[in-house]
Structure formats: structure tokens, C-alpha cells
Amino acid sequence: MLVSQPLSWPTTNWPDPTVAASQYTVYQVFPGSPTIVATETTNNTLLSYDDTASLIYQIRPSQGRQDDNTLVVGASILSYVVGYIPCRGWLRQKIRKALADRGDNTQNTTLAWPDDEINEFIQEAMIEIGKLFPQERAITINLLGPTIDSHNNMVGVKNYALPSDFLFIQSVEYVTAGGHLHYFLRDKPWRGGESTATSFYGYPKLGMLFSPTMMAGRIFPGHFQIYEKELQLDWDPCGDREYLNVNYLGVYTLPTDDITPLNCSAADLELFNLYAQLKCWLRVEGQDASISRWRGLPDGSQRDGLPTVKHSTIVKNLYNERINDRKEVRPRAFRLVRR
After folding, report:
1. Residues 6 or more apart from 264 whose CB is under 8 A from it?
2. Run of H or E residues at 117
3. pLDDT of 224-241, one tens digit each?
4. CA-to-CA distance for 224 and 159, rounded, in angstroms?
5. Which stretch of 39-53, 115-129, 157-171, 205-219 has the lowest confidence by average pLDDT?
6. Fewer C-beta neighbours within 10 Å, C or N terminus of the chain?
7. Between 296 and 233, where is the model more confident?
8. In 3-state terms, what secondary structure has residue 318?
9. pLDDT, the chain, mean
10. pLDDT value for 200
11. DSSP states of 195-254 as a string?
């Protein structure tokens, strides 16, 4: 249904940091490319949209006009999300609602929580949850053929960089050209002596080595190891269209804007939300501790009594409960008869 929504936003100083902006431009940035919806000389407008659609609006200070190509805009000061879009702007808006700090109404034009602070709490939440519950990822690595060094020796390309979100390895599968051979590699053991293959044929324990210039190195799959987010092989790939299928556990990619959808589940979004709320309430209670609640009374006695439960305790208990639910991979079994 088509609805009309009054929308207000905090004022900002732009482009001169000491002078308030005289104009604001409202963009619809999702879906599709950014489109100008309105240009206002005040810090409010009336949006008309279909409330069944998923939309994202951004408000930026501006100057000039679009029709004569003189429009210049500043950084976004508010993102307004309609519907369910799991992006940083939607998540921050959800957190603001829980903190009674909505920036999309006419009653609140001065936000108590700046965007960068909530964004930092969201980032901390994604780092912590990403390590507790890493995501399954899969990539393909094309193996490269050997090269010739300055001493005319064939040197295999054995080291391959892993993605920046890599956390733990699950499996490495070696596949030849055409997929005729599928072989799961094993982690490189450390036993001393000739534990795994090297760039040489032979038996190192007996002192018998053959140079790669004679035998072209070991070219059949052996083992792998992970070091500094790098997959290291112990043989020389021939580079004949062979590749590796790598399955790993990865952390979340941290968002850099408000409109890119987060690659996570609804349960993870709820954990991000609770974590950010917890950090916000802890900061509020920390400030209150130095103001009134735990300050001594005029007669010198201590004010240790706390008439209400701290709100952070309630949010923390709810957060821990959600964490335990995620860790519980199967229903608990209770023994009915004591042995």
C-alpha cells in the first residue's frame, strides 16, 4: 500500500564545518542505483513509498542543483530502511529503536548515539560472533606450473594465499584436469626425518637425493599445511589445469557502508543487535556510576543499594541465552533411569 511518511533528520554543518547546511538531498539507494527523491531546505520531508517493498533512503547535505550539473553532496547523515533488508543501516535503525533514539521522527532531531559509535559496536559483534560461529565457505584454487630460477632449476609454485576471511581449514581436495582424479589431501605431519615429500626425489634419511633438474621434482599430490593464511603444498604442481577445492570456516566480512546486505542469518543479526545494545547500556551505566548512583551521600555514608536491576544485565542474559541456543547442536538427552 502506498503510504506517506514524515521523515526528519539531525542537522549538520557542511561544507563549512562552522556553518549549518542550507540544503539536503534525499536519495533512494536500494534497490538499483541511487536516485534523487527530494531536495529540501529544511531537515524534514514527506516520503511516499510502497510499504510492502524493501527500500533504503539516505539523506546527505548538498548544494547546487541537479538539472544544471552543479549538485554537490556531502557524507550521509541518516539511512532510513523500509522493510527487511539485512544491512548495517537496517541493523543500526533496529538498535536505535531499542535505545529510544530514533532519528526518523520529528521529536528527535539530535541523536544521542552517533552512527560511528553504533557502527563500532556492530563491528565488534561481528568479530566476536564470527569467531564463535564461523561460516562455511568454499573456494577453488587453480594450481600454477613450475618456473625456472636463476640457477636453471625448476621451482614449483607451492604457496597460495587464502581469503582474508579465513579462520580454520576443513578440507583440501586435489582435482586433475577433466576431473578424472579427486584426492583429498592430508595435513602435513611433523615426525622428523623424511616426514613428507620435498622438491627432491629420493630418501633423505639415507642421504640419497635427486635434483629437480633431473627428475622435475615431485609432481604427485602429497600434503598441505596452513601458515599465515597461506596454503602451502609439499609437492610441485605441474599446472596442467589441475586445481584445489578448499572448504574452510570463515569470519564475517565487516561492512563498509549502510546499504550492502550482510551475508549472515537472521539469528546472527539478532546476536549483533543484542551485543550492540549491551555495549550501549554498559556505557550509559558507566557514566551514571560517576554521576549519582554509586556516589556517597552528604552524610558520608555509601549509597550501595540499587533499587532496580541494571538494564545491561537483562540484555546480557538474553544475549548469553541466544549464544547457548546456538551452541546446542542437538536436543539434550536426559537419563530416565539412574544406573
Report:
1. 86, 126, 135, 252, 272
2. helix 115-132
3. 899 989 999 887 888 778
4. 10
5. 205-219
6. C
7. 233
8. helix
9. 80
10. 44
11. -S--SSEEEGGGTEEE-HHHH----S--EEEE-SSEEEESS----SS-EEEEEEEE-PPP
The predicted pLDDT at position 109 comes to 58
Q: Give the CA diameter of the chain.
A: 92
For residue 104 the three cell numbers come to: 526518523
Q: Does residue 233 contact residue 285 with C-beta atoms inside 8 Å?
A: no
Q: What number of other Cβ atoms are within 10 A of residue 123's Cβ?
A: 16
State how far the Cα of 327 lies from the Cα of 264, in Å rounded to an integer: 17
Please name the residues in contact with 259: beta carbons below 8 A apart, sequence gap of 6 or more: 29, 30, 56, 58, 79, 87, 89
Q: How far apart are CA 224 and CA 228, in angstroms?
A: 13
pTM of the entire predicted model? 0.71
DSSP 8-state assignment for residue 163: P
C-alpha–C-alpha distance, residues 118 and 124, integer Å: 10
Residue at grid coordinates 533528520: 9
CATH architecture for segment(s) 1-85 = Sandwich (2.60)
- In whole angstroms, what is the distance from residue 46 CA to residue 126 CA? 34
Q: Is 145 helix (H, G, I), strand (E, B) or coil?
A: coil
What CA–CA distance (Å, rounded) separates 221 from 219?
Answer: 7
Q: How confident is the model at residue 217 (pLDDT cuts 50, 70, 90)?
A: very low
Q: Are 141 and 199 in contact (CB under 8 A)?
A: no
CA dihedral for 176, 182, 228, 120, sign (positive or negative)? positive
Q: Please, are residues 109 and 9 in contact by the beta-carbon 8 Å criterion?
A: yes
- Taking alpha carbons only, the member of 119, 75, 74, 123 closest to residue 96 is 119
Give SS3 for 151.
coil
Tens digit of pLDDT for each residue in 90-108? 999 899 888 888 766 555 5
What does the domain layout of the chain look like in residue ranges? 1-85, 86-133+255-328, 135-250
Does residue 212 contact residue 236 with C-beta atoms inside 8 Å? Answer: yes
